Amino acid sequence: MNVSKEVQIEQKVDALLKLMTLEEKIGQMSQIRHFEESADEHITEKLIGSIIHTEGPTPGKTALDWQKRFTELQKKALATRLGIPLLFAVDAVHGQNTYEGATIFPHNIGLGATQNEELVEKIASITALESQATGFNWVFSPCIAIPFNEKWGRVYEAFSESTELTEKLTKASVKGHQGNLSDPTTVMATAKHFIGDGATDFGVEGGETSLDSKQIQNRLLAPYKIAVKENIGAVMASFNTVSGISMHAHKALITDTLKVGMNFDGIVVSDWKGYSRFGENDIINAGIDVIMAVDGDLEDFQDGLKAGVENKTVKMSRIDDAVKRILRQKFRLGLFENPFPEASLISKIGIKEHRDIARQAVRESLVLLKNEKNVLPLSKEIKKIVVVGEHANSSGLQSGGWTIHWQGTKENYKGATTILDGIKKQAKGQVVYDKDATKKYFDADIAIIVVGELPYAEFFGDIDHESNQLKLTLTETHQKYIKTYQEKGIKTVVVLVSGRPLVVTDEIAQSDAFIAAWLLGSEGDGVAEVLFGDFNFSGKLPHSWPKGIKDYQSKYGPNFWDNTKEPLFKFGYGLKY
Ligand code: BGC
After folding, report:
1. Within 139-296, where are the H helices?
2. Residues with C-beta less than 6 Å from any ligand 1 atom
3. Where are the domains of the chain?
4. pLDDT band for position 190 (50/70/90)?
5. Is residue 310 flagged as an active site residue?
C-alpha cells in the first residue's frame, strides 16, 4: 500500500464523515437490490450506499444495458447532497457467473485440485475484469471456508479441506481480484463466510459450529489472516452459530478477533437479510458495517438503527466506525474520481484469452483416481466411442450452482462448450451419444460415461435437508449407466461431475478409469484434451475421498484432520498416466 495515499484517504474520510447526518450514515450502511420496487427512489431518499445483484431480474440484456442501468443509479447517488458514489456488488464466485456470455471457471473446489496459485490469481483478475465490464466494483468472493463435512451444500464454493492450501489460494485470489484496487479492471473482493460456515456439525448450512476457540484459531482463521494481509476490502459474516451465538452477533469474533486482532480496516458485510434474522442492532454492535437490507428489510433496518442511536443502545462511535470503513474502501477504489463502469471493457467479456485460461483450469482440475491397464490416454484413432449421460451434453449440468442462476441451470448457456463437444473435436473415429444408456451401442470400443450431481446452491445442496432428496451416492439411474456398458465388456472411462467427493467405491471398482472432474464451468471441452493425451493429468484431491456412507455418521466426514477414519484416497492423491 502507498502510505502517503493512505494518509490522504484517511483525511478525506474524516472530513466527509464530519459533514454527514445520521440518516446519511445509516444510508451508507444500507445495501439493496437494483430491481426492488422503489430502488431508484431509495437511492435518493434513503441515501443508499451499495447495490447487490444476485438471483432475480438482470439489469438488462446486453452488458451495455447492465452498465447503463448501474450508471443511471450511480448518477442518482452522485446527485444526493454529499454525492457519495455507490458500490455495486455481485456473486461472481466462478467468473462473472450472473452474466450469460461471461467466462465461467471451475468452482473453487476444482481450483483447489489444481493447487496452482498463479492460475488462481489470473482467474480472479479475469473475473474482476468481466465483473467491471458488466458494471460491478465489488464481488462476494472468494469463499474461504474449510469444509469439514461433504454433506454441506457449499463444499464446492471453497478451495479445500486443507487450511494450508486454502491460505495459498486465498492469497492468490485476493491479489487477482483487487490488484491495486483503483485500477478500472479490478474489484473489491470479499472473504466469506466469517466464520465456521463449512465446519458446522453434520455439514448443515447455517447450523452450529461446535469447534472450540483453539480449533477455530488453528483451522479456520489462517486464510482470513492472509486475506487481511493482502488488504481484502470486505469480509462477509456467516449464517452459522459458534457455540450457540449467531456469527452475525458475535462481537468477540467479528470485532475483537477480526477487526482489532487482525487489524482489518475494511467492511464487514452481513449476509442475506442479516438484520432481521440475526438480532437487529445486536449485529451492528457486534461489528457489522453494511447490511444486506433486502426483501423488505430496508425500513426496519434504517428505522431500527436510528432508534438504537437515539435511545443510546448503539453508540455513535460504532456508526462512525462502520461509515469510515465504507468510505475508506470507496476512496481506495477510486470511485469518487471514476464512479462509472468503462464501456471499453465490454469487448473483453468471454474472449478467447479468458476462455483459454478457463480451459487450462479445467485440465488442471481433473483428478485421475484410477487408470487400470492404462486405458488412458485414449487413442484418437479409436474406431467407435460411445459417450453416455446427460452431464456429457449440458454446459449447465457440468457447471453446478451459481451459474446463470443462483441454483444453476440444466440447460446449455451462451459461449460454453460441453464435454461431448470436446470428445468430438479430439476423436478421429465415430462418436455416438447415448443420453440415458438405452441405445445399446455395444459395438463401441470405449464408453465414456459422465455421471454426477444436479446443480444446487446453499442449503438446497445439503444432504439430508428436508426439501431435497440428495444423497452422497450416485442415483440408481447413473449407476445403471456404468453397469450397462461395463457388463457388456466395454472399457469404461467414468467422469464424475460433482461439487464434492461422493461415495462411489463400487463404481470405481467397476470402471477401468475414473476421473473426478468437479464443476467445470463454461469450458467443458477441456476434459477431452486430457482424456486423449494432449495434456497429462496433474490435479490432486483437495479433499480426502470417502470410502462409505458410514464415514458421515459423526459430525465430520473423512477430512484429513480426523484421523479416526481411513479415506479411500487421501488428500493430495491423484494419478498420472
Ligand atoms: C449467501 C452469500 C451470498 C449472498 C448474496 C447468501 O444467501 O450465503 O454467499 O453472497 O446470499 O447473494
Report:
1. 163-178, 213-215, 222-229, 251, 274-278, 281-286
2. 54, 91, 140, 192, 271-272, 458
3. 3-346, 366-552
4. very high
5. no
Phi, then psi, of 95 in degrees rounded to 5: 95, 180
Pairing of strands 138-139, 234-237: unpaired
pTM of the full predicted structure? 0.98
The second-level CATH assignment, the architecture, of 3-346 is Alpha-Beta Barrel (3.20)
Closest-lying ligand 1 atom to the alpha carbon of residue 91 = 10
Ligand 1: distance of its center to the CA of 186 in Å? 21
C-alpha cell at 396: 449447465
Question: Residue 457: which residues within 8 A CB-CB, separation 6 or more?
Answer: 153, 154, 400, 401, 402, 406, 407, 408
The whole-number pLDDT of residue 142 equals 98
User: Partners of 450 in the beta sheet?
Assistant: 495
Which atom of ligand 1 sits closest to the CA of residue 239?
A: 8
pLDDT tens-place string over residues 87-134? 999 999 999 999 999 999 999 999 999 999 999 999 999 999 999 999
CB atoms within 10 A of CB 324: 19
**CATH architecture label of 366-552:** 3-Layer(aba) Sandwich (3.40)
261 Cα–ligand 1 center, Å: 26
